[in-house]
Amino acid sequence: MDLEGEIRSQPIKKDSWKTLLTLAYQSLGVVYGDLSTSPLYVYKSTFAEDITHSDTNEEIYGVLSFVFWTLTLVPLLKYVFIVLRADDNGEGGTFALYSLLCRHARVSALPNCQLADEELSEYTKDGAESHDGNIVWRLKSTLEKHKVLQRLLLVLALIGTCMVIGDGVLTPAISVFSAVSGLELSMSKEHHRYVEVPVACIILVFLFALQHYGTHRVGFLFAPVVITWLLCMSAIGVYNIFHWNPHVYQALSPYYMYKFLKKTQRGGWMSLGGILLCITGSEAMFADLGHFSQLSIKIAFTCMVYPSLILAYMGQAAYLSKHHAIESHYRIGFYVSVPEKIRWPVLGIAILAAVVGSQAIITGTFSIIKQCSALGCFPRVKIVHTSSKIHGQIYIPEINWTLMLLCLAVTIGFRDTKRMGNAAGLAVITVMLVTTCLMSLVIVLCWHRSIFLAICFIFFFGSIEALYFSASLIKFREGAWVPIALSFIFLIVMYVWHYGTLKKYEFDVQNKVSINWLLSLGPSLGIVRVKGIGLIHTELVSGIPAIFSHFVTNLPAFHQVVVFLCIKSVPVPHVRPGERFLVGRVGPREYRLYRCIARYGYRDVQKDENELETDLVCSIAEFIRSEGPAYDVGTEDVVNDEKMTVVGTSSSNVEGIRVCEDDGNVGEMAGTSELREINSPKRVRKRVRFVVPKSPQIDVDAREELRELMDAREAGMAFIMGHSYMRAKKGSSLTKKVVINLGYDFLRRNFREPTFALNIPYASTLEVGMVYHV
């Protein structure tokens, strides 16, 4: 599965108008499904109990005014015109902002960062560097010096991530339930109570069951469904405006917000928790930026989504302004404003739109958990790529079924949009507050703009969001406790795993074996060297891991070629295939010890075992070929062990060495005039050959080394993994003992093993057990 070409083609910077409009069309189905279904439940949640719909219409006009200005200021002004510009090489979302800050202020939570990572093509730092004495420089140095501030920044990013996961539970529940609630107008009150919840649960089970198959097979239907829904809402809105109240546009004036709050007072403030639901899904514009371009998302929102939503809300308000007796029979909702003759078709379209909107947030939840896992902030999970052509189409079984169970629990437990809306509103506004805080730092540290501008940004948008946050938080007992509880649980899991991973790495660094010990053993390492390649997986980017000495001490035999393999994540979204590997030697040439560091971005697709093995062998062979004929390692160079060469993958390095594997038939390459082969001795089993360019010439030592590498590849490759048991050392605090001995150990035992998460075959894996006292 070769996704690397697809990955690099995603962030399109300069598009033709045809491509741009195509992307805008596609974004309607992926990005705006959640936002477009908000009219189903906004008015119903707002008028649930805090305020009433009176004959003066001051309440309905005030709510419409709040909805209009909230949609204008937050999605349109904040996200479309400001936040979308803060992309991380075309990627967006909470971790994109955190990644930008990590690169510009050196506050990364990843322990094994290297200076070589800063030479990556996507490791860019925009703007001029600040000078000493500058406020920006002082802020940057303060963040770099104080570990507490770095932890707070990480916790802030994790809180936003946890709330996104909570939104992945609540949005499908409220969207599907609100769409199904149209049944209450088509049957008696006695029957619809027993129909809504089962129908909603059946749709949710069907939705989550389909995740395993991926969305690429039906994804082409998403945009038409959302467009049909937006046009349907707009048409109904225009009809209601002209038929019931053509003067409803006057309510768009901010003066009606003042009148609303003056009349309703505390009840009006509490009802803001329902009004903020009109911006659910706005964060998706930024989170899904990696699949589209900035301009395409802006065009789709300003030309289609924004006008349709405004017309829909105005149409509902126009209808309700002439109907004041609705509450005596049914609660205020979207379907009461739909003409009776078309309610059933509209109900069907609404359910489809709710499913599309739910699908987008579920896929987004999978994506952000993958990013967390890549950055060491979430336990290892099984990641299934459901499409070999579309980047980002992933499926995580454990998370999928957990989300489904939580969705069903919320739907069955609440059984109304009021408490679901309170829960979803708090999750949505918390994510937006986190984005506002991180954006203010990006403005200063990454864009190098005035700190006054950052203060204005956080004060203006932070004040609006804090008002809605307080209104949502006051509904803690009426449903808002759900996202808080979910986020608390996920935050504990993430921080415990990150803390344990960090302590494990610190133990590895403190207990790594000295290179002098290796040199004292001689080229044979004092053990029997058998045929084959031994890949020792380690998190270390320098030095010799303790598991190697532990292994050879207890079993004095090892492979003729040893590779210390480090698969690490870097704080960039993607690493170009040509910059994938860092390859170097450990010790002199005759030792046949190599270090290979495979670098992946937090949104990269890690290869399966076959591709990884081939690329590793090719990268080492290319390193040997390009090293030059005169390679003499001095003692100082050996001890430092820092000379690394950047080598690309076999698919990206067209002019480099390639591997040919067959069953002994060499005729297929015999006619190649520009290539020559280095053949290994004949064997009955699968044959491995290196095909190298005709020039430059390879010296005798390099040819011999390549021949040994081919022999070792033919003999097979074994993965040596460290199976660590972590325990808090004596004298540790009670909190540390609970976190390490109970929390981290529980997560390690109940989530995926490293062999499974890294796609390493069990048949060729050898685990070395060690106890880590941290």
From TrEMBL:
User: Keyword set for this entry?
Assistant: Ion transport, Membrane, Potassium, Potassium transport, Transmembrane, Transmembrane helix, Transport
Segments forming domain K+ potassium transporter C-terminal: 532-773
Give the top-rank taxon of the lineage listed in the UniProt record for this protein.
Answer: Eukaryota
Record's Gene Ontology CC terms? Answer: plasma membrane
Q: Where in the cell is it found?
A: Cell membrane; Membrane
Please tell me whether the keyword Oxidoreductase is annotated for this protein.
no
Ranges for the K+ potassium transporter integral membrane domain?
23-519
**Where exactly are the transmembrane stretches of this chain?**
20-40, 60-81, 148-166, 194-214, 220-242, 267-287, 299-321, 342-362, 394-414, 426-445, 451-469, 481-500
Database matches in InterPro entries: K+_transporter, K_trans_C, K_trans_N
Name the Gene Ontology molecular function terms of this record.
potassium ion transmembrane transporter activity
Q: How does the entry describe its membrane topology?
A: Multi-pass membrane protein
Role this protein plays? Potassium transporter.
Q: Which NCBIfam families does the UniProt record give?
A: kup (TIGR00794)
Which PANTHER family does the annotation name? OSMOTIC STRESS POTASSIUM TRANSPORTER (PTHR30540), POTASSIUM TRANSPORTER 8 (PTHR30540:SF10)
Annotated family: Belongs to the HAK/KUP transporter (TC 2.A.72.3) family.
Report the protein name in the record: Potassium transporter
Q: Which organism is it from?
A: Carya illinoinensis (Pecan)
